[in-house]
Amino acid sequence: MNKILYLSIACITMLHASDVTMETIDIEATVLEDVSGDEVKSADLAEALVQKIPNISLVRRSGIANDIILRGQKKDNINVLVDGGKIYGGCPNRMDPPTSHIMTNNISGIKIIEGPYDVENFGTLSGGVYVTTKKPTKEISGEVSFNMGSWNYKKAAATVSGGIQNIRLLLSASTESSDQYKDGDGNTFSQQIENYIVLHPTLAGTAYQETYANAEAYNKKSLMGKVYIDIGDRQELELSYTANRSDDVLYPSSKMDALYDDSDLFHAKYTVVNLGDYSKELSVLGYYSYVEHPMSTLYRKMAVSEAAAMTGAVTSYLQSSIAGVKVKNTMEITDNTEVRVGIDMSRRNWDGQYHTQTGRNPEGRPNIPDVDTDNIGLFAELEKRYDIITVTAGMRYDNTQITTAGEAPGNDYNRFNANVFATYDMSESLQFFAGVGQSSRVPDPKELYFKSSMGGSIGTPNLDATVNREIDLGMENRYENLTLRTKVFYSMLSDYIYYNASKMLNRYENIDATIYGFDLSGSIYATDIFYVDFGVAYQRGKKEDPLRTQTGTNLAEIPPLKANVAFNYEYAEDSKIMLETFGATSWSRYDAENGEQPLDSYMVVNLKVDHNFGHGISLAAGVDNIFDRTYAVTNTYSDLTLITDGTSKEVMLINEPGRYLYVNATYRF
Length: 669
Fold this sequence. Notes:
- Helices cover 6% and strands 54% of the residues.
- The chain is mainly beta.
- Strand 2 and strand 3 form a beta hairpin.
């Protein structure tokens, strides 16, 4: 650890020379643009990311509100920010991960950071997904879109923007709904559960009641409003509010469904430029997000069974919020040297209780006992350009205090982290890059304090913070007809927080582990109108030692080799045909002792046509999973509560959608 920190400090103090013009670089980042225009099939950000980024894999939970794994990491091990502000879901079972509270029709761009190369934001252990939403325009502009698809999928969205003098406004709204999708065998959510029950009749109570067996999979609405005010030539004030409302979201492989998921996001940012010699730009960001998530057995047969006569349906009602402030000052020391310093403060709260229809036990029993996570962090980053070499070095100090209204003690965490990242332009067509860094994240309230409906302590109150020490290497080739980007990484995780299914209580524990892998992506340009995009990614994760009472060392949620190839034909301006295939090898390295199981390999073919008619009118139509394959991509790590007969070998899998047809019409002005 000390070697990494000393190297970072040394680089920060020595980077002063040369008079080359500063060029901004993205550190270990992938940038996606025009997300709202490209992703027209649904508002699910997770599905959009999975098909674009080789290193991202899907965790299927429902027809919407799905989760992601980034380079073998999930949950709080990766950061998700919207316009600089953090958001956390309310569900301890990941029914509403942070990505589910961002609609793709509101997104202008996404930046994905891989590795510990972010000192501005608290808790970026192994990567981050940083979303930028649409900005207001000065001129009157907007768009209206309508989408229809298989399984009665319907979506309507509209955005309008414009300005008067120094004020710019934007208003965006959407609504969408869908029936339960069918897998390649023609089974709906309800039928997938019924098929599992045939083999495990003791779990008949997990089936949907007849009233809900053919219910919609979800109903989702969103509203986003923004006001940008130019205060003179050098100052700007940004205000925004986003409301997301989801009702009756079905989660077939879990024992509960969401009665609703509601979230509210508030952002305010003040920016002033050219204050003086020591401030090229000063920004102050304030944000607040609030999530309500009640999940219940109300739609399942267990709620009306004889065993539930005393309680009726059981509902786990959860609330999650975070409020934060970040102040950042950017200084241009010389034409080729830039320094960014700041302070980052936040308070996260997570609270939840069990409730019953009859008011009987476990009525009012806490599952997450009103936990506050208070953080204050100081950060500094220096970027320096030497002719053909660019070096960025950063450091961050965090003090975090976690307190709870329950009987368990609180925790204090103090961490100092740092990183160095460098790029070397060997020629106009060849660039090398390398990074080394240390980052950390504190345990979340579920890992520390979660209790089952019977009152058992699943969380472990004395967990240590996880530390990631990582090395990244790569190269990028840019030729006339080829671009190629290759990356390898090796991550050493100390006190990694892991779920031990062999224990009755305090199932989360600290372990040491490693994750390493590579990814390769690029494009081949055969002609001006025909090109091929491709990508492949692989990770391997191992525990240093088996967990207590266990023998295996495979790390959970490490997806197998994944690859995608897309053939693009631009037959007219802003019009193209894309034939895409993606798939993965079999999931043969898995953590069987903690709920995982083998998954078969798969390959899926999609077809999409985008046609621009001119005058602002465009049409997109496509077919996903053309050959109607039946396959699953999501494993069954016991950290999630899924339908099971109690053995790690018989956890219910949820299949991916079968053949899906869709059409989207858009008018832009």
